[in-house]
Amino acid sequence: MAIIIIITVVLMNVLIVGLSFISPLFWWLLPFSLGFLILGIHDVLQTRHALWCNFPIVARGRWFMEEIRPFVQQYFIESETDGAPISRMFRSIVYQRAKNNRDTVPFGTQLDTYRTGYEWIGHSISAYNVKDMDCQPRVKIGAKHCLQPYHASILNISAMSFGSLSQNALLALNEGAKKGGFYHNTGEGGISPYHQKHGGDLVWQVGTGYFGCRTKDGKFDADLFAKAASDPQVKMIEIKLSQGAKPGHGGILPASKNTIEIAEIRGVEPGTEVDSPPFHTAFTTPIGLIEFIQQLRKLSGGKPIGFKLAIGRKSEFMAICKAMRQLDDGPDFITVDGGEGGTGAAPLEYSNSIGSPLREALAFVDDALTGFGLREQVKIIASGKIISGFHLVKNLSLGADICNSARGMMLALGCVQSLSCNTNRCPTGVATQNPALFKGLVPEEKAERVYRFHEKTVHAAVDIMSSAGIDRPESLNRTHIFRRVSQQDVKRYDEIFPHVKTGSFVSGDIPARYKLDFEEASANSFKPAGHLSEVESQTKVVG
User: Fold this and answer.
1) Same domain, yes or no: 412 and 528
2) Which H or E run includes 305?
3) Is position 98 within any domain?
4) Are 379 and 278 members of one domain?
5) Residue 52 and residue 124: Cα distance in Å, rounded?
6) For residue 398, which of 352, 357, 339 has the smallest C-alpha distance?
7) What average pLDDT does range 2-14 have in this prediction?
8) From 74, 361, 385, 418, which residue has the greatest number of CB atoms within 10 Å?
């Protein structure tokens, strides 16, 4: 596209010169046409903006719209439907932080504080000075069976695989993670050279396709897993059970993105659409899942093992908790992916109507682990539209220990939300395997933006905590966040999501809202008790 635009501008200059011999009036157009040519050449050669490089001259229209945004922003905020203006505001925050620009705003709040759903944190008269606090806090992940615990940042890069993202995007993400000291989740596409080049910490995600550790027929290969997991750069392993954007559906890699290189890394045929199965074959029951976790921990030399899921039937998660109690073992961490999470490709109904939203899912997982007396052993990671410092604080208050962000990191890379992730035509080179497009994304430039976005967002979260009189992330709880539930009523999170007593599910003191799910849960089956087969019913484990 860049070559076509430049050639067009050159031909325009030639045409104007030719017409000037017919009429001197055309000479007045020549300085403008030459200016466009110089501007186009500059855009192609610069490295800061992928859009300018891939679409010289014409891409500058986006920056023009950004310049006039302040004049029209208030109109949109007051007139658009709930959610749209907020999304635009947080997108602007990411861009400003990533580019190291001032991210303060004048003239007060830009949100309708009387809108149902508006949330805030209560500040404290006894506030802390943020300068006296640790502005890059760490959280230890690794329970009693873990031999190589990992200390993670409270904000990290969520799962995005090589295939969904370009090689240059992954290089930038991993270099940013290395510089900032936070981890980079590989996504389910396996570990690529672009995840490894800069040495940033990795969380290796193992999905239902077992990419990077699969046999020819798509089953789990223990030897291949052990070899990859022994890499010192791999700090943790995450078993992907389901994804918030398309739970129960499996991943999709379009054939146009499945290059020879990607196919070799994944162990599949190139040029074919790769659909990950919606279920695992290495295990079929909650007990089997815990045993699989034990196997991976042993094969990896004792590294933290966890799983990622979107919450569907609550009884299924309680069944996993019962299996953890029965075997006295379990994951070192659980990643809770909200139904509002993003993806490069998913059926519309899955994106909009399947899977629990993050807030409800996160509170439930925290309650379930607490009720079963397992919360101290397992760290919770929240994932799903987490972009700002307040997003971090809100999810930590609700029960998370740390958070993952995909959307925020993509925006820091230069994503303009063109909604073409599934077409291989991403104009910024982030979500494409087309060399003509991803060459415009210069990893060294974007890595710095990823690093700055992380650093400033975590600092913003710590700054908010200091104003609330909280000196460390683990001190946050549901009493700190307020939500307007109607025009007249405001409730704290602990009123909306009441706390569960530690061990109450074991002692039999089960809150009424969880009794049915508890009774349906069996460590021997993911199916609710009322749907067990005759064989499963005979071997049902109660707790």
Assistant:
1) no
2) strand 305-309
3) no
4) yes
5) 46
6) 357
7) 71
8) 361
- Residue whose pair of structure tokens reads 């439930």 in the numeric block: 364
CB-based contacts of 48: which residues, under 8 Å, 6+ apart?
Answer: 442, 445
Identify whether residues 385 and 512 lie together within a single domain.
no
Token output for 219: 């089953």
* pLDDT at 318 > cutoff 50: yes
In this prediction, residue 61 carries a pLDDT of 66
Q: What is the mean pLDDT of residues 273-292?
A: 92
Q: Is pLDDT of 27 > 80? A: no
Q: For position 107, what pLDDT does the model report?
A: 64
Average pLDDT, the chain: 86
Same domain, yes or no: 47 and 153: no
Q: Are 431 and 164 a contacting pair, CB within 8 Å?
A: yes
Residue with more model confidence, 346 or 207:
207
For the record, the structure tokens of 21 come out as 């011999």
Q: How many residues does the chain have?
A: 543
Q: 481 burial class (0-12, 13-18, 19+ CB within 10 angstroms)?
A: buried
| Residues contacting residue 163 through CB under 8 Å, at least 6 positions apart | 187, 189, 253, 257, 258, 262, 266, 274, 433
Q: What SS3 state is found at 171? A: helix
CA of 170: how far to CAs of 122, 163, 438, 476, 497, in Å? 38, 10, 11, 33, 38
CA angle 331, 335, 338 (to 5 degrees): 150
pLDDT at 78: 36
415 is a domain residue: yes
418-425 mean pLDDT? 82
Q: How far is CA 212 from CA 193, 218, 272, 308, 492, in A?
A: 12, 10, 17, 18, 45
Question: Counting runs of H as helices and runs of E as strands, what totals does the chain give?
Answer: 21, 15
In a domain, 114, yes or no: no
Distance CA 285, CA 491 (A): 39
Q: How many whole angstroms separate alpha carbon 475 and alpha carbon 261?
A: 46
Please give the structure tokens belonging to residue 465.
């905590």
Please name which of 200, 97, 213 lies closest in space to residue 156, comparing C-alpha atoms: 200
Give the 3-state secondary structure of residue 253: strand
| Residue found by looking up tokens 């021997």 in the block | 524
Q: Are residues 22 and 49 in the same domain?
A: yes
pLDDT, tens only, 33-88: 777 677 778 777 777 777 767 777 776 666 555 554 544 444 333 333 344 444 66
Domain of residue 473 covers 132-496
Please state the pTM of the whole predicted model.
0.86
CATH number at residue 235: 3.20.20.70
Q: What is the pLDDT of residue 73?
A: 43
Q: What pairs with residue 237 in β-bridges? A: 204, 305
